[in-house]
Design goal:
378 residues; Dna Ligase, domain 1; nine-stranded antiparallel sheet; 11 helices; 22 strands; alpha+beta; five-stranded parallel sheet; globular; single chain
């Protein structure tokens, strides 16, 4: 792909991922256009061009994409048919529409894993809450909506037949509950020439109620063999899709030592934010390199790191205020990243904090300190 000044890149989605993607894109002299339904989206004031419009509307996405050199995404819930038409007309679209179509439907995604011999938890597909009654013996399981679930929404645990009444009454999947030791993630990148690189495995800690990543540690505290296996699985996943760009592969490390793929995201991901400070090449620069078909950057760790998600406090809705900023910034190796969101509400992602520290125990202590001290209120 030719590379020149003012290369016109369109990004579908104007949230924090798009914001950080733009921050890396500036170094490449890219002309950035963003489409997002929120007129106050974090990308609005830093993109070269901003369009307020619906990401799932065919005409809106198609019109936005016309005249661009390349289209990418920062969210999966987009109109794939419009992207397919743009691709047919010569606009580069990475990740490719066929990959997005599979990944944006968790039912298709899980079938894809099974068909390509990618290790994953056992599952069954259901069309309604009533149909779950047929799979009483499959419980306990997690029910996941096929489409439109994100950030913990559209996922719930059904422990037994007595809880089926709370099930989603939409096409979904039941995923067998897996007793796991750790939740892991591997970011992997691939360009059009087939060059691939993985980042070191990270270890994620989720909020017990809201299914959001509270914090993560990198690299994960696992064996060399487990690290190698996780990275090989991530490579297999992106190769199976033939995908160009960044892919986040979330995994379970079971109590028996097996590694199973949970789900994937075809874009920069929460589990890779720390790479901005902690790795030679951030996931955002790597995504730009991959979709422009440039050589991929080194993914080596500079130092061990932790990431703490900054979520809106329960009980607060309104103009965001940040309490404890000065206290955390007095700590060495602590870096604040705010997302430019004017308003907070409970558990909304408002920013993150990256912590760099050579000693793992000190790293964990600082992560807990940041988690206790920094609050988003209104």
């Amino acid at each position: 792909m030719p590379f020149y000044q003012n290369f016109k890149l369109g990004i579908l989605g104007g949230g924090q991922l798009g914001r950080m993607l733009i921050q890396s894109s500036i170094d490449f002299n890219l002309d950035i256009s963003v489409l997002d339904p929120d007129e106050n989206a974090p990308c609005r004031n830093i993109a070269n061009h901003f369009t307020c419009g619906k990401l799932t509307d065919f005409n809106t996405v198609y019109a936005f994409g016309k005249g661009k050199d390349l289209i990418t995404i920062e969210i999966e819930n987009v109109n794939v048919e419009a992207l397919e038409k743009l691709e047919q007309e010569g606009v580069k679209v990475f990740p490719q529409p066929q990959a997005i179509k599979i990944i944006q439907d968790k039912r298709l995604q899980k079938k894809f894993f099974r068909e390509n011999n990618i290790p994953t938890a056992d599952f069954v597909l259901v069309e309604s809450a009533e149909e779950i009654k047929k799979f009483d013996s499959f419980l306990p399981a997690f029910q996941k909506l096929g489409k439109a679930g994100y950030d913990g929404r559209g996922v719930q645990k059904i422990s037994s037949s007595s809880e089926i009444h709370k099930a989603f009454n939409e096409p979904s999947l039941l995923e067998k509950l897996v007793p796991f030791e750790k939740e892991l993630s591997v970011i992997v990148a691939r360009n059009s020439l087939g060059e691939v690189k993985t980042y070191p495995v990270v270890e994620m800690v989720f909020h017990p109620e809201h299914n959001l990543v509270e914090y993560l540690f990198a690299p994960a505290q696992i064996s060399k063999e487990q690290e190698d296996e996780a990275r090989q699985i991530a490579l297999k996943v992106i190769e199976s899709f033939g995908m160009v760009g960044i892919l986040a592969v979330e995994m379970f490390l079971t109590k028996e030592g097996k590694i199973l793929v949970n789900e994937v995201a075809p874009r920069p991901h929460n589990s890779g934010h720390h790479t901005i400070k902690a790795n030679l090449t951030s996931q955002y620069e790597q995504h730009i390199r991959a979709i422009l078909n440039l050589s991929l950057g080194s993914t080596s760790c500079l130092i061990a790191s932790a990431l703490v998600n900054l979520l809106g406090e329960a009980g607060y809705i309104g103009m965001a205020k940040y309490d404890g900023v000065d206290k955390i910034l007095k700590e060495e190796g602590v870096y604040l990243h705010l997302y430019g969101k004017k308003f907070t509400n409970p558990f909304r992602k408002m920013g993150h904090v990256t912590i760099l520290e050579k000693d793992i125990d000190s790293l964990k202590r600082k992560a807990e300190f940041v988690k206790r001290t920094l609050k988003v209120i209104a």
